[in-house]
Fold this protein.
Amino acid sequence: MLLRRGEQVFAHARFSLKKAERSVQERHVKLDSASVTVETHLGLSDTPLSRRTLVVGVVIPCYQVAEQLACVVRQIGLEVSHIYCVVDACPAGSEAVAHHLATLDPRVRVIQHARNQGVGGAYVSGYRQALRDSVDVVVKIDGDGQMKPGEIGELIRPLINGEADYVKGNRFFNLADTRSMPWIRIFGNVGLSLLSKWSSGYWQLFDPTNGFTALHADVGRLVPWQKVSSGYFFESDLLFRLYTLRAVVQDVPMRARYGDEQSQLNVWKTLLLFPIHHARNFMKRVFYCYFLRDFNLASLKLVVGCTLIFFGVTYGLMHWIRGYELDVRASPGTVMLAALPIILGWQALLEFLAFDVHNIPTRPLQQLTHILKSSHKPYSPQ
């Protein structure tokens, strides 16, 4: 059975490669490593950042995507100058397909990992190579065919217009599109989205685990990539890191396609580990943004609220235990002295939460790159 399955995979991959080869020949376009004028393909000739040629690169983590990889690469448009296929120690033939695609399309470059580093590690490897190649916008797209490469132009439009530093797809923008989504993905994404809002601070975002993303290279140089999670928590952890930089992040509507691909995500492991990671990032974010970097009225409300709740709960428990042991009912004054701090504390925490929901970055960091480059040590890929 395994041998037959392997033959089917490679047969499908060879068919996809032949289609990719024909597609390249039919275009009659000479593709080289030079930059491609993005405004020509996206109609952005009047935007401020389109006055110069922008270089767009696409990173494709390749792990068990031998059947779909050729089709994904074939659909990537000419607005993309570099395609980085990061083969993450895949045992299922993705490496051979990627190398063959590199012979067909000169934009394709294969990066190999000796050991599996996860989707985050694959993206970082591709991102580092993109910086070496002076890429301005780095797009990440999965190799399983769920995303439409033809939508890359719409995805990067906010970056080119200077409206955002990082953009990501949102499969839930059009509710009609969720009909084709497996129900377990719907409930999982809703729960993870709520946790991500708390931990990242981007309360306006949804679908945080979406792998269709684009990052401005100038902002990416400020991200501490060595600290970003390398596993499936990568996208959510990156949002947390971007918030600490006060980067502007936007959702872009997209449609996902679901076929017979199999997710490598362990559902039970996700249910156990993701809430822990989100709780850790939430506490870090609150400390960094409300106490270390700044101390404002919201910070004071958080301290006062936690203090009042702690006092009310502690005082009430002490008198409840004492009354239970002595079989004595608490007086109305004792009850009020315990309940009132809890009520006031919750009110203070709700006011802190309201401030946090509206404390979303609005000024893109890419507009401050001249300041950032002079005040920060530039990121040099290794």
Summary: The longest strand covers residues 56-62. The CA atoms of residues 61 and 86 lie 5 Å apart. The chain has two domains: 2-288, 295-375.
